[in-house]
Write a structure and sequence with these properties.
globular; Glutaredoxin; 4-stranded mixed sheet; 3 helices
């Protein structure tokens, strides 16, 4: 199973810019689990995934991290990244 985890923070400007892009990605990609994590509320998870900047998006397949990026990417690029692992 493919899982997409987005780490962000309420105070983060780029996170606010990425949010609508990720909402569009969710509507276009099926069969994938999407999770949003606030780094301030879940510091332990941010530490576990070695998140040092936000936004960070991590793609897991079968529980293993297979890709990750920080910052903003175009919707098409994110969709292509996810589809590689489906």
């Amino acid at each position: 199973m493919v899982k997409v985890i987005k780490f962000s923070a309420l105070w983060c400007g780029p996170c606010k810019m990425l949010a609508p892009i990720m909402n569009q990605v969710r509507s276009e990609v099926s069969g994938v689990s999407f999770t949003d994590i606030d780094v301030d509320a879940s510091k332990d998870l941010a530490f576990q995934y070695s998140v040092s900047s936000v936004p960070t998006v991590i793609i897991e397949k079968d529980g293993m991290v297979v890709n990750r990026f920080s910052g903003i990417k175009p919707k098409g690029e994110i969709v292509n990244l996810i589809n590689q692992y489906k």
